[in-house]
Amino acid sequence: MATTTLQLYWDLGSIDPSVRQNATQALIRLLVNFQKDHEATLEADEVAPANTEEQLDSLCATDVAYAIRRLLRGLPSSRQGARQGFSLALTELLSVTNVITVKLVLDFLFKYTERTNKMTGEESRDMLFGRLFGLMSIITAGMLSKPTTTLEDVERILDSLKDIADAKSFLVEVCYHVVINMLPTLRTEYKDQVITKIIATFLGEVENVNQLSLALAFQQKLPEVDLTASFQSWKSTNVLAPVNLAHLASILRESSEDEQETQADWKPQLHNVWDMLLDIYLQPTPEAGAPEANGHAEQKDSDRPKKKQRISKNGDSKYKTDNTDDQTRASFEAFWSAAVDRSLFDNSSHGRKYWGFLLVQKVLPRLSSEQIPLIFTENFMRVFMNNLSYESRYLNKAAMYTAKAIQKVAQDNKQVSFALVTQLVGKNGNQNFDRITKTKTVENILATMDNEGIKSYLEYLARIFIQQQGDDTNVDALRTWVLSQMSLLVKNNRIPKDEVWLGDVARFLMVYAFFDVEKGSSKSSYLERYHKPTPELSDDIRNSCKNTFQTVLVALSNMPVLAKNDQNANPIKSRKFHGVRNDGDLWVYYVLQIFQKLQKDKHLSIHQELSAESKQEYKKALGLVQKLHEKTPEPESLERGFEILYIHMILHLLIDEDEAQELLVELSDCFDKILPKKKSNGKKKKALGENNDDELGPEPIDVLVDILISFLTNASPVLRDLAERVFEIFSHKITKQTLAHLLDILSSSDKNNGSEELFDNNDEDGEDSDVQEIEIDSDVEMIDDDMNDEGEVDEELRHKLEEVMKKEGVLAGSDDEEEDLDDDAMAEFDDKLAEVFRQKKLEKKAKKDVQLSVIHFKIYVMDLIIIFVRKNPSNPMVLDIIVPLLNILRATPAKSVTSQFAQKIMAFLKNKLPKIPEYPKEHDGHIVDIFKAVYDFAKATNSKEISDMCIQLALYLRKCVLGGSDVELDESLPAKAKKEIEKLNAIESEAAKIYMTKKTTRLRKDLVAVPLERSPFSSWPLLETLVDYISPASCANHFKHTQALQLITAVVQRTVGKKSEIYNEKFATLAPKIASKVQEVLEMSKNAGDKNVLNYAEMRTFIRFASTMIRFHKKAVKDDSKKINEVWKSEWFSSVTSMEMYDKQGMQVTCKQLFGLLEQ
After folding, report:
1. pLDDT tens digits, residue range 625-639?
2. Which of 307, 310, 555, 893 makes a 20 to 30 Å CA pair with 954?
3. What is the DSSP secondary structure assignment for residue 298, as one 8-state letter?
4. Phi and psi of 814, rounded to 5°?
5. Left if phi > 0, otherwise alpha if psi is -120 to 50, otherwise beta: which for 647?
6. Within 13 Å and on the Cβ side, how many CA atoms surround 516?
């Protein structure tokens, strides 16, 4: 026997299917070659079927005979995938070997899988599995169709399968499956006898799913067999006849009289009879003569009529055939309703509902869009939504998996996406499906749709909106849901966009928000044309249409340009081209054009006419829009900004006529001053922002910004969004006065009622700007708003309570006598007290709401400042906002209501401003004052977050002075920059002195260390300051002494020994001072009683520091040993190892390395 095959048998038991398959292919390839070589040595008359072991050994090669025994013997093995691998190899070997008979294989199989009474339960199960796998291999290999197979062999197989099924109930289904696979392979000589035995042994009268699967197999594979006796209790031999559906459903439920027994035998897997039934409806039947699944035998033509499938819309599989029973087959809808919906989902156990979920997952990928509604029945949707809504539900995971399967089907087949969505939100589902189930199922399906699917869904929504029946409450609820869905489709970035349906949505909303339909179309599209709503729209729905229109308008104004020629492509991501269509026009301009067309449509009438004054302003503004549009302005030009403003104001006339009319008047004034007309002599007026002594009043840009600021407090989302978009266009025209105005709004006090300074037009001065400094500290407790006014609140409440008590006589006055109250009076008194407290609670809530509105307004204004900085990072005015923002942070109370505002400012100063690539290159000397203010702010805080913010600001300001990167302090540096750097270094040096000399300070190390690490060249003077702290006597404690050494080392490593000779000379000059400080520390160490003496670890670190300084000193002087020895003396360090506290091996090694540096 060849040893090359032994390893392959081991690989057959691998848990990895690919390893098993490769091993099987290699083994069969070798065995076939061995058999061919062996048969070549035999005489022709010697080749005959082998019925005994002796004949096997003589007619087969040694490796083949060994393989037959080894594979059959290995079938009962429970090692990993041994059964699967050995049965696969056995099947392939039996299919390619002609000398082996079924009788011989059965003899070996029964011998190796014999069960005895001495076996344990596990061993007995292994034997049963081994025998079953062996029988499956015989049948799958096509051995039953060989001439050598006898009736006795087939009967032995059937008897063995019956024994296995009787032994273990969980093997019954597999045994029936093996019997079904036998049917196409039976030989004609014994076919009738075998069929009779199968019917008698396995079929009998059809009463369970296993018998049903066998009966269906007979009808499909051997239709000539008479099964009338097996269907005596059925009303028809056609299993799927309408009259049989109730009985069929009962069998498929696998129910019995003993429900407990049924639950005990329940299996989570679906029976294979479901696949047979579903294939009848959803899968074409193979043509006669097609190869069987095993690939080894072809089924011969039979008398069974050929059938050609045609799937109908209701799910029926209709065949052209002469069999009249097919004509009585129930529809797929009827079958599903009886066998699945009413049987598995309606008042059934958890196990059967689980089967129902599996069936839904199984059929979903095979259904067309017309068939999808058939399975989303009322019972299924109720069970599905209930279990999907809560994780505690028993079948929550099954429902979740079903939801994922639905989304997967929608993603793979976009033609059914629309049908799936309409079922989830339709009659049997719920419009708020995602909210109820706490999932994003509908949203995810919508994201998988193509534009055709989106249009179909919009048409579906429009029909629901227009045609409704029922009471007003339900109608309004459905119409509100439709509007929310339309808004979702436009706003959701995952949903593919198309300019056509986006315009249709805008038109639809405008029609039913601002117009009345006089004459509607009866046949055209509900979305693209006009229809009279039934019933009429209520005022609430019209307002909802207006609000949705504004939401959609905001989304369109911020929408990136859609990619051309690809309906499913992602939008182009660019700030400059948001809110623009592919033809270059603004979306809002396109919406305005739609409105103008609607005005001229004879089938529509305006719902609310504008006043004469508004119409005049409308015409004037419309004329300006046309002129500005004809100029084709650049995306960020002033003309484009005014075009956007005017269009929105025109549309806002439809929402709030009075407000829009006033805004149009103010806007026209600003337009005339900012974009003046040319004079006759060709000269222009003075540019925006320049002083004009001949004219009094605020600058036009200030008026415009005031208008934009007023938008921030408006209830309209369009105006709030418009404020930021237009401010971004005009931001380069902002003056110092405008910026100061924005900062004044942020710094205004929100005490008392919180809105006097921001929203009232009082001539009185506000509170003093020198507000009490309240530290923004991470350790500060968040204070409730009402605690500050506790005294006043108590007095007011006490006064009200006294008034109530006096009226009821409970609290007698000086001339009154107290009266006893009866029950009714006491109840009335209690009600009045409750009303007092209720009113007080409402006052507190109103006060808090006002404070929140003020804070949100300030956040919006802060967004404008951020936009200014982002659009104009090199403007010198950017520096002017740092100190005011720091003062605002200092004055902002650490309350929960203001924390969001404070975090907004800190995030800008820490993360956004310092990280902008561009910076102000032109600035005056006040940048030093800003730098000092940042350091002063850092000294007064314990918060790490604020300290980190100050570090980033310090680096940003240093970048503005240095010009973007670190520079060397040499003669080439401009005098102004050099002077500013010196002042910055002086401030940092002062901070370093405070940090080093004070034991407790709010100043953090990073405020000193980070500038040194980022700008070591320009921070060299700070190094000279730190040299004084080489001695621990100068430091607050030994920890800060160690940090001083680390900082000095970091600067020296980044500057000395590089290409710059200037810093080599600077260090050579500084080295004697460093050496003097080192000598001082070493001398101090001889005095053991001194508190500044370093311990062993600290001294070893100090020696390493000295070694580093010596090494860099040598680099600075080009290894001039004379200069080195003049500064550094080896005898300073000799006494260190002689001291008892330092006399350790580690110290000796460190000092030895230092001596080596001095001797080189």
Report:
1. 998 888 866 777 888
2. 893
3. B
4. -70, -30
5. alpha
6. 10
β-strand partners of 916 = none
C-alpha to C-alpha distance for 644 and 765, rounded to whole angstroms: 36
DSSP letter at 864 equals H
pTM equals 0.74
CA torsion angle 17 21 24 29 (round to 10):
-170
Nearest CA to 1081 out of 1108, 1100, 1055 is that of: 1100
Residue 654: how many other CB atoms lie within 10 Å: 20
Amino acid at 714: N
| Sequence-ordered list of residues with C-beta below 8 angstroms from that of 824, at least 6 positions apart, any chain | none
User: β-strand 309-311 against 317-319: which pairing, if any?
Assistant: antiparallel
Residue 418, CA distances (Å) to 352, 451, 481 in order: 29, 11, 17
Full DSSP string of 912-955: ISTT-S-------THHHHHHHHHHHHHHT---HHHHHHHHHHHH
Note the pLDDT of residue 293.
34
CB 38 within 8 A of CB 90: no
How far apart CA 397 and CA 1050 sit, in angstroms, is 58
From the centroid of its chain, how far is CA 235?
55
Amino acid in position 42: L
Percent of the chain scored above 90 by pLDDT?
A: 33
What pLDDT does residue 764 have? 39
Which residues is 516 bridged to in the sheet?
Answer: 605
The CA distances from residue 1111 to 956, 1102, 1124, in Å, are: 34, 14, 10
Backbone angles phi, psi at 844, to 5 degrees: -60, -45
Distance set, CA 390 to CA 344, 431, 439, 500, 567 (Å): 21, 18, 11, 40, 37
Distance CA 1160, CA 1148 (A): 18
Residue 1140 CB-density burial (10 A; 0-12 exposed, 13-18 middle, 19+ buried): exposed
| pLDDT 10s digits, 306-315 | 333 333 444 4
Alpha-carbon distances of 905 from 335, 768, 916, rounded to whole Å: 65, 22, 16
- First-to-last alpha carbon distance for the chain, in angstroms, is 76
For the record, the structure tokens of 823 come out as 């029950």
- C-alpha dihedral, 352 to 357 to 363 to 364, nearest 10°: 160
Rounded to whole angstroms, the Cα distance separating 725 from 732 reads 13
Rounded Cα–Cα distance for residues 993 and 1029 (Å)? 9
The amino acid at residue 557 is S
3-state helix, strand and coil shares in percent for the chain, rounded to the nearest 5: 65, 0, 35
Q: For residue 989, what are its two tokens?
A: 């040096």
- The residue whose two tokens read 């049997």 is 428
Contact criterion met (CB below 8 Å) for 454 and 446: yes
Q: Which neighbouring-strand residues pair with 517?
A: 604
Q: Which contiguous run of DSSP H or E holds residue 6?
A: helix 6-11
Amino acid of residue 1099: M
Q: Name residue, tokens 């940042």.
A: 934
Unique residue bearing structure tokens 């294939």:
279
Alpha-carbon dihedral of residues 392, 393, 394, 399, nearest 10 degrees?
A: -120
What 907-911 contacts at long range (C-beta under 8 Å, 24+ apart), as own/partner pairs, is: 908/862, 908/865, 908/866, 908/869, 909/882, 909/885, 909/949, 909/952, 909/953, 910/945, 910/948, 910/949, 910/952, 910/953, 911/952
Q: Which long-range contacts (CB under 8 A, 24 or more apart) does 231-240 make?
A: 231/205, 231/206, 232/205, 233/205, 233/206, 233/207, 234/206, 236/325, 236/328, 237/325, 238/325, 238/326, 238/328, 238/329, 239/212, 239/215, 239/277, 240/277, 240/280, 240/329, 240/330, 240/335
* Alpha carbon distance 157, 302 (integer Å): 25
